[in-house]
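Subject: Sanity check before I submit

Could someone independently write out the structure tokens for this chain? I want to compare against mine line by line before I put it in a report. The sequence has 361 residues.
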Amino acid sequence: MGRNTSALPKNAGRHPYYGYRHFSRFSNYSFAPDGPEILVAGLSYKRSDVDHRSRFAFNHDECAAAYKNYGGNFFILSTCNRTEVYGFTANEDNIKAILLEKANCTPGELQSLIYVKEDNNAVSHFFRVAAGLDSQIPGDYEIISQIKSAFTLAKEHSKTNGFMEKIFNYALQASKEIKNKTSFSDGTISVAYSVALQLAKSEAKKVTVLGAGETGELVIKYLQKLRPEIQIHLVNRDKTRLQLVAGEYDVVPFPIAMLSEAIFDSDALVVTTNATMPLVDMEHVEGSQLKMVFDLSVPRNIHHSIYEIMHVMDVDDVSKQINVTIENRLREVPKVESIIFEHIEEFNEWTLRRALFHTEK
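---
Independent answer below. Compare away.
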């Protein structure tokens, strides 16, 4: 069987942030010939848009059904950025059938959408995914919990074996070492999280969030996780949405007409609305005790006169901090690559010992 390398774009294998190919030493790596041939088939954000990835996305129940309906040893990793099935070349037809059934497409269409990696390429790919090197945002550590959940579900359905368990454990060890010995996952990469983190580190005891949309909700969610004791006032124009979000997160709701009252005794204000004109005027902040102000709206929803008398961080100011985080993470890539290579070497030594043991028997 051959690898699916047809019609690969020129930038295949490049990361959108650091834009260079994987270390060449990975591609020259060989594993013990007597071990089972490992395979991964799937698609990711690198070559597929959201619509295509949605067709291949598995939820928990769909993964469980696939484990019951298909033979062989395999596990499915499905996130918002990728769907991949890991198994062995002996089960390649089954693996492709799983993807075919899920996407309801023809074999020809499947071949044009997915990538197939075998043996050392498949193993090094898995290690890179587990390390966050293959993530849309480098250093995304959430992928580890997703991998653990995916592997656990497959194991519960008796779809894994000792060889897969070893690959899984070595990849987790590498990821843990990267987390402990590098700053590859340090810093914030979300505007909402960055603001919540700054508020959590401050002495603010009461925060007003203006806007109950996605960004406003995320600020509340992250802030409660980081500082659960902090009191939050939520202000929104749409009363139905206001009550819905306020009830879900147990925060104090204020209609837009009571914006001044919500702000008055708050230490911080976060504006996440998308109005075409400023919603926060001087009259809303006069006499308040605000010490931190964030305007995450585009266009700005805080009047320019307030910018003149207070230090207001707009979305560009917050984004600059995120860009610094990305740059800092990318500087750690060589260290990450070295750790991955060391653990792949250890895995290869295990396969050699395993092959020798079976030969002697």
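---
OP: Matches mine. For the report I'm noting this point. The chain has a mean pLDDT of 87.
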